[in-house]
Amino acid sequence: MTDNMTIDRPAAGTTCVAALYHFATFPRYETLRAPLQAVCDENGIKGTLLIAREGINGTVAGTDQGIARLLAFLRAQPEFAKLEHKESRASKMPFLRMKVRLKKEIVTMGVEDIDPKKIVGTYVDPKDWNALISDPETIVIDTRNDYETAIGIFKGAVDPKTKTFREFPDWVKNNTGLHNKPKIAMYCTGGIRCEKATAFMKEQGFDEVYHLKGGILKYLEEVPAEESLWEGACFVFDERVSVEHGLKEGPHRLCHACRNPIMAEEVNSPYFEEGVSCSHCYETRTEADRERYRQRQHQIALAKQRGQKHIGG
After folding, report:
1. Higher model confidence: residue 102 or residue 299?
2. pLDDT at residue 310, rounded to an integer
3. Catalytic residue (choose from 188, 194, 234, 281)
4. Class of residue 81 by CB neighbours under 10 A (exposed 0-12, middle 13-18, buried 19+)
5. 234 carries an active-site annotation
6. Which of 277, 279, 302 has its CA nearest to residue 292?
7. Are 173 and 200 a contacting pair, CB within 8 Å?
8. pLDDT of 1
9. DSSP string of 225-288, one letter each residue
10. Could you tell me which residues come within 8 angstroms of residue 130 by beta carbon, excluding any fewer than 6 positions away?
């Protein structure tokens, strides 16, 4: 157990974190895997990039120069010439390794023939978002999963409480009350899930469908905290765990047993054991599970003593 632990995280860091995605017709995606991996390795970049027939998606981190070289390589591909990205800072490298993966979809919704290049909602800039979601004629929907919404959400937003993005289409179909107001405003972390979510909503017959351009990350970057309608922190898929206004590193850490974000006070819970359990998962895991996690945590500790990084850490 860990007692009286505090989390002291700098507001800025030397590591550049770049989140990016781009939908494109990209039938040659398999041929890009090796050269893309090579560019990342040559420039000391770590993270994950997903490439598929429908485009590219991922988050990577490295030096400013390394990230610039990667982005130049990607934008030199005709399919990604207009690729946009969002940058933030980390106090240390937030990834353990670099992975370039071939996928069926760059964001998995599981619905055939949803193509954001053909139909999509109306983009709303962060500066205009507050007015839209404050309109009483608007229903605001968070398209993220429950462990993400648990630590932050826009004021007044509907939380579908989905476990995965695959559950979102059924949630929409089962909530007929969504048709009660003319406007649907949707948001997610960086914008990519809303590309497919708004396309799906349009195909389901919703007319006025909007989504936050650049997602929560762009909103937190551009909208001053004193004007913000965002409540809490934004979950991110790297070792920072969360970010706040100005894209400063948030106060959360990750339970490596259940992957849920936890606050400093939860570290002091009797249910918390580093790498083994927390208050979110203690009741849903068996003692055999916890013993297995303890063995993994032991290996992580041994690797740390040797000055190495254990992949499970």
Report:
1. 102
2. 53
3. 188
4. exposed
5. no
6. 277
7. no
8. 33
9. GGG--EEE-EE-SSTT-EE-GGG-B-S-EE-TTT--EE-HHHHTSTT-BTTTB-TTTGGGS-HH
10. 223, 227, 229
